[in-house]
Amino acid sequence: MKAIISDLHSNIEALEAVFDDIDRLGIKDVYCLGDIIGYGPNPIECLKLVRERCKLVITGNHDRAIYDKESCESFNVRASKAIKWTIEQLEEIPDALDYLRNLPEVAEIDGIMCVHASPLDPIREYVTPQYAIEKRRLALLFEHVPNFCFVGHTHIPGVFTDRLTFNPPEKLFSNLYMLDPGNEKALINVGSVGQPRDSKVDACYVTFDGDSVVFRRVPYAKEKTRGKILGIPALDDFLGNRLLAGR
Length: 247
Ligand code: ZN
What we know:
Purple Acid Phosphatase, chain A, domain 2, six-stranded mixed beta sheet, globular
């Protein structure tokens, strides 16, 4: 059994709660789909924990913005202010930049493609549930997905299928998606550990046993994380308040 986490966003309370859950399930192999940092108050702690515990980590747009000015320029004011603050914090870890710079954009878990954002634009494209309504772009993405693909980035968990549907976890029986190779392709968004945006506040991640994906939600001390964010002037209050709204 494996665990796949994404979009931690410097939220150590959420990340520790998720690792506790992973430990309770006895899972040793943890994979991270990027955005370890950005937005939140504990980049150093999150980076350390991920380096210690994750077998494989791929890069996200926020991880890249740490060393790549151009990617930071595409960010909104809140996000880029948080990145500038994060860069200062990470000076405490001498090889942090090298580590982030060397993260791959694409990887495989059990032969399944993994990217932070989208199969066609691994770092930036937001594959939102709206794609299942507009359909055209989603159909194009599936031309580039060999069978299945794990993604994060939108912070909205769920399963897109090549029938051009989107199913949030609560629409799946027992929050479980059974892979059906040869019959159905799927793009599986594992959700966000540190900043969920599906109107739910608990940290989200998935477990994967090679045949099925189970979406898990883990409560954590979000008031504490929010309080830290509100106490750091470089981090917009909105970034703290949204943790209580889940959006
Ligand atoms: Zn993110």
